[in-house]
Amino acid sequence: MRVKAINKLGLGYDAVAALNPEIIYCAATGFGEGGTHAGQPAFDDVIQGACGLANLVGHEAGRPEYPPMLLADKVAGIATANAVLGAMVHKLRTGQGQYVEVPMFETMVAFTMTEHLGGHGFHPPIGPAGYARLLKGGRKPTPTKDGYLALLPYTENHWNAFFSALGRKDLFEKYDLSNRHERNKRIHELYDDLRSVTANFTSAELMELCRKLDIPVTEIYSIDNIHEHPHVQSVGLFEPFDHPTEGELVVMRPTALFGKTPSRITRHAPNIGEDTNELLQAAGFSKDFIAKAQAPG
């Protein structure tokens, strides 16, 4: 909800803080309230387009593309949780609540540009933006004789061992892989050579080799079969959960593992409005105020 709209409802920070000065109040906005686009409507697609992500995803095809997930929503959600935790640390130390704002647009610009500032990380710029090793012609899933792998020789020793084991020591000698900067200048050519070699071997052969050489590698899973991943199954990531109105669901347990305070899902996903009264009362609003706010008209 936009700040102006929630203020009209009498639920803005000033109104809430007057009732509970120690509250931590977080507004997750589309665009920061201090900027030119403050108050503009913003959904995941809009933010992906505005922050440079859609252009980045589609750069090789020559047209912007959205990644097929609600990436901006999820990243902004994580940033919001982190911001609230920071405010909670401050409150534990001082007893003070505060207003926190997490703008989705600024969050996603920072998320996208962290590795892609490139030459724009200097003033004046010393080159174009973008991390060349990840851009056009760079890292991609590696083709094999019968499919694809995510395979990444990274160090000089990795490249030497990998090319040597496959009978292509000449490719290791072709590049100055001891010099990271020289290697990155020819990274697209290097990856082209890598793909030309791996296409002659099966995925199973390359998996076995990479495991032996301690080179990072994995089969490529899909959203349809990720639940079959042996590690996913061994750690019980997907769990059954009984919902009071929707029946038996499959949920993902919390992934963070705490030694002293193990986490688990204790409440079902609420239906629309199910927790409204509880949340408003926790914020300090009286039952009379809540009843009036919910009254028709």
Automatic annotation (TrEMBL):
Keywords tagged on the record: Transferase
GO molecular function, one term: CoA-transferase activity
Organism: bioreactor metagenome
Protein name, as recorded: Succinyl-CoA--L-malate CoA-transferase beta subunit
Enzyme class (EC, first level): transferase
InterPro entries assigned to the protein according to its UniProt record, in alphabetical order: CoA-transferase_III_domain (IPR050483), CoA-Trfase_fam_III (IPR003673), CoA-Trfase_III_dom3_sf (IPR044855), CoA-Trfase_III_dom_1_sf (IPR023606)
Entry EC no(s): 2.8.3.22
